[in-house]
Amino acid sequence: MINSNKFYVYTDGSCANTGSLSPGGWAAIIVDFNNNKQSIYGREISTTSDRMELTAIINALEFLPEQSNITLFTDSQTAVQRATKKGKSITNLDLCNQLDILCSKRIVKFVWIQGHVRIPLNEQADNLAWKQHKLAKIDAKNLRLGGVLQGK
User: Predicted confidence band at 16 (pLDDT cuts at 50, 70, 90)?
Assistant: First the structure.
């Protein structure tokens, strides 16, 4: 069980198409000061890669208490730029606004890391996001076939 006010978080998003809508998944690995670990993840049927990267960060921050001290690692340079306001965003304003609100209630340090270079917790987040992406593809196919979605 997560029990601390200092956290390390690794996030990732996965989507088939970078700029156009397609099924996608997100994941976050949260580690507290006592080295307790918690994984959270989810998926969407119609999304973009940038939205999944931001959604992973937002869900991780929502999961953690206000006033937490968080070091958040992501392999998305776009997400880091938007979170630190070093990049202007004309897309995903809803998520950027939500991220701003969450960050204003926590102490968050964003750290860009290179993806797919065998950083264990980043690889875990990547694998979970990829699995959710694959499940979202199945969900989308079932909807096209008139099926009913099972719980996420």
Answer: confident
Active site (annotated) includes residue 94? no
Q: What is the pTM of this model?
A: 0.91
139 is catalytic: no
Tell me: pLDDT of 149 over 60.
no
Tens of pLDDT, residue by residue over 52-105, are 999 999 999 999 999 999 999 999 998 999 888 876 677 899 999 999 999 999
Instruction: Confirm whether 151 is a catalytic residue.
Output: no
What is the DSSP-derived secondary structure letter of residue 151? P
Task: From the candidates 32, 53, 133, 139, give the one annotated as an active-site residue.
Answer: 53
Q: Is 123 in the active site?
A: no
Active site residue 32: no
d(CA 138, CA 135): 5
Is 126 an annotated catalytic residue?
yes
- Classified as helix, coil or strand, 115 is coil
- Helix axis angle for 49-63 and 120-144, nearest 10°, is 120
